[in-house]
Amino acid sequence: MTVTGVDDHVVDGNTAFSVQTGAATSGDPGYNGIDAADVSLTNTDNDAAGATVTPTSTLTTTEAGGTATFTVVLTSEPTQPVLIEFVSNDTSEGSVSRAAVSFTAADWNVPQTITVTGVDDLRADGDASYSIVTSAATSQDPVYQGLAVADVSVTNTDNDVAGITVSGTGGLVTTEAGGQASFTVALSSEPAANVTIAVSSSDTTEGTVAPAAVTFTPTTWNAPQTITITGADDAVDDGDGAYVIVTGAASSADPGYDTRDPDDVPVTNADDDSAGIAVSPTNGLRTNRGRRHGELHGRPDQPADGGRDDSDFL
Ligand SMILES: [Ca+2]
Ligand SMILES: [Ca+2]
Ligand SMILES: [Ca+2]
Ligand SMILES: [Ca+2]
Description:
Helix content is 0%, strand content 37%. The chain has no helices and 22 strands. The strands form five sheets. Strands 4, 6, 8, 10, 11 and 12 form a six-stranded mixed β-sheet that branches. It is rod-shaped, with a radius of gyration of 48 Å. One calcium ion binds next to loops.
């Protein structure tokens, strides 16, 4: 006689049963009615309560909104519905699409998908690790009640870069007549602390600059600040003068910005002087009477033209 165990999907434990033998029937009165002993057996259970999470690591989301998914499924058929809840341990980096999943005896073996979405910020904060924390299962089925379920590790990829943006720096010209030029400065990402950048002129005989420094805060970092340059005058025909506006290394408690040094800004100060001998006035002048050629040779001084003015000599 061969006895074969029957499979199910329930965690029902090893189960005792028996093969019952009936009373023999025979024309031989010595056998008829004899009842052999029943056979006691145990059907060994092969089911275990569990929730399989796939995968539990190597997930990547992005600050640009990139998503990742994982699935959850039970390893055996529950006798009562099973609830599993999820929460992100850092909602500034990632969020979950569903707060919970529930399994019943009808769908316990159908994986359910949870989507994780990266959350954006404006800081150059680097790639950040966070977790989707799964609660212990809750169920009226005692083998599932309180069952621990694995958490999921995720990395959210940063899309911000620390930088100082200096704009409008091409072909700047000031003039000795006081003509001005300007450019702007802003940050490319939100700093963790104030960022101050000093600004100065390399040659204040050619041009001066204001303000002497600009400061960006975590709330004003993306509002460009204008630097104004004013040409300085002299009275020398010194030609157009090249100088630079020196943008200093940034000072900040944010290490991503501290010591970051933007390129200096070249400027030309246009000269307004020209070399020459100014003659003034050039009319309305009077001279003594003119002298004739002969007078240069010692002749008596004679009125040559009745003493009229001879401004033509000029
Ligand atoms: Ca079973
Ligand atoms: Ca970002
Ligand atoms: Ca960021
Ligand atoms: Ca000059």
